[in-house]
Amino acid sequence: MFAINIVAQEVSEKGDVYPKGSELIVGAIAFGFFFFFLWRWVVPRFNAVLSERRAKIQGQLESAEQTRRQAEGELAEYREQLASARGDANRIIEEARETAEQFRRDIQAKAEEESRNTVARAQDEIRAERDRVFNELRAQVADIAVTLAGRVVGAELDTKSHERLIDEYIEQVASSPN
After folding, report:
1. Would you tell me how many other CB atoms lie within 10 Å of the CB of residue 142?
2. C-alpha distances in angstroms, 122 versus 7, 78, 111, 117, 136?
3. What pTM value is reported for the model?
4. For the CA atoms of 31, 33, 39, 44, what is the dihedral angle to 10 degrees?
């Protein structure tokens, strides 16, 4: 077993606190070598890494700016397409309105034409019916007139001559304004 004896010495001299001259020289030389080593190999490598990092960041900023410009361009293009789509939609709606209005006018014109045709057919039928009734009436009036004239005169009259006279009278009555 070894016994370790630590002897506590009292520090009372300045030399014990401050480094010795040889230690300072060795420390200065070591610092010089260390500084030279840092300056020669570490600082250039550190500067290269910083330059690479700076270039990378600059490239990323330029890329981000280019992407931002591209996004703004695409947004402007999208807005133009949207405005164009809205314009197309409004144009299609307007065309549909015009088509519907034209369709309505066509249907209305056809309905009016059919109405006029129906009225014209009805008027033609009325005229035909009136002419038929008028001819029947003429024949009946002629028969009645001949019969009455025969009773009044008391003799049989010539039917054909009387019918001719009655037809002339009816035509005069029909052509008179009253």
Report:
1. 19
2. 149, 64, 16, 8, 21
3. 0.39
4. -130
Rounded Cα–Cα distance for residues 88 and 96 (Å):
12
Q: Look up residue 151 and give its two tokens.
A: 């009773």
Residue 117's identity, in one-letter code, is N
Exposed e or buried b for every residue in 44-77, given b needs 16+ CB within 10 A? eeeeeeeeeeeeeeeeeeeeeeeeeeeeeeeeee
**DSSP 8-class letter at 5:** -
Per-residue model confidence as pLDDT tens digits over 41-90: 989 999 999 999 999 999 999 999 999 999 999 999 999 999 999 999 99
End-to-end Cα spacing for the chain: 169
Half-sphere exposure in the Cβ direction for 42 (13 Å, CA): 7
The domain segmentation of the chain, as residue ranges, is 50-175
